Amino acid sequence: MLNKFFKIQEKGSSIKTELTAGLITFLTMSYILSVNPMILGITGMDKAALFTATALASMIGTLLMAFIANIPVAQAPGMGLNSFFAVTVVLGMGYSWQFALTAVFIEGLIFLLLTVFNIREMIVNAIPATIKHAIPVGIGLFITLIGLQHAGIVVSNEHTMLSLGSFSDRGVWVALFGLLATGIMLARNIPGAILIGILSSSVLGYFVGKVEMPANGFVSMPASVAPIFAQFKWQEILTFDMLFVVFTFLFVNLFDTIGTLIGVASKAGLIDEKGNFPQVKKALLADALGTTLGAVLGTSPVTSYVESASGVAAGGRTGLTALSTAAFFFLALFLSPLFLAIPAQATAPALVIVGLFMLGSVVNINFDDFTESLPAYLTIIMMPFAFSIAQGIIFGMLGFFFMKLFSGRAKDIKLPVYIIVALFIVKIVIDLYQ
User: Fold this and answer.
1) Alpha-carbon span 23 to 307, nearest angstrom
2) What is the Cα–Cα distance from 68 to 53, expressed in whole angstroms?
3) Stretch 285-302: mean pLDDT, rounded?
4) Span 65-124, pLDDT tens digits
5) SS3 letters for 97-112?
6) Which of 21, 127, 190, 208 could bridge to 314 as Cys pair (CB 3.0-4.6 Å)?
7) What span, in angstroms and rounded, lies between the C-alpha atoms of 412 and 407?
8) pTM score
9) Count of CB atoms within 10 A of residue 38's CB?
10) Per DSSP, what are the bridge partners of residue 163?
């Protein structure tokens, strides 16, 4: 039944591979279960309720991706979007978290309309081929940087922005062990290498004091979401500030999602030789529904997760991978002490390895044509350096537009690209005056 519904054999996979890939995806993104409540909690929202809402929103969003789009992509409240929710809207602008939650709900409804009328699909199809080739590479560097940060190998530095972490940190050695062990197992074609690497690193982490065993056991009942459930505030929906907040959520979420879907789908072999992604409309519909339902549950915008690439690297090709990931989010509701005991240093090597896997499409970029290579290069470097998939796409698209326009090759610019660039400029102007 599973094979028939998800077309597993047709995609060259197996049930065992899909289930394992789902577990790996969950492990590499499970940090959101602790990080999202911590970030949104500074607004005064109930942290226990936020943990439950985060797990439920992730589970529901990922189930939607599994059954509607049948692709190995997981969803959860987006990093960056949750910081904008808490730090900019609530702490910076002085609005209540209920105001911010209302903005997320409105954004989700707009996303649904844009998807139904094929506008989001049009944007995906309008992205030039050179940018599509660059997106997986940029995501590879971006996800590598995330992994190195989680490992403690790369840390912030007030003078140089980034610097090498301290080797006196035992967590760094846990991550380096996991990276080397996973690499060796991949070289020897050992099945489940990434998962074995995560588990073996966790065992080492326990012996060096990086894993804290829960004092009250591994099982706990989830907290109620009642304190934050559907807490919308409609009094200020017609203000300019609400327009700014909704537009920012919409803009960042749109291009983060598009970038992630293109990147992950490319590595999963879901994009055809013409650069088309047949399941993109269904995937975008699942994403829009995830954001809308996530707002009802009481969390920031739900988006497709770049860590899904770790499951794809392990062989995940269908929605069964996403279904498996969703099942683990459900278990996390009751086994949160167990899942949260796995240290970030144990999952970090998987992200670094996946970053390597994502670099392959760089060979498809035409480096002999500067109007193609510079936009691709901007896309690649701005994703990790600006710490944003959306910003990478913005710089790449603007670079493509102006390079083609002023090089006498305006005929290479499709009409939708003019519209997309106009939206980028509007966003920049709004940011200047905000």
Assistant:
1) 12
2) 22
3) 93
4) 999 999 999 999 987 788 878 877 888 888 899 999 999 999 999 989 988 888 888 888
5) HHHHHHHHHHHHHHHH
6) 21
7) 11
8) 0.78
9) 13
10) 155
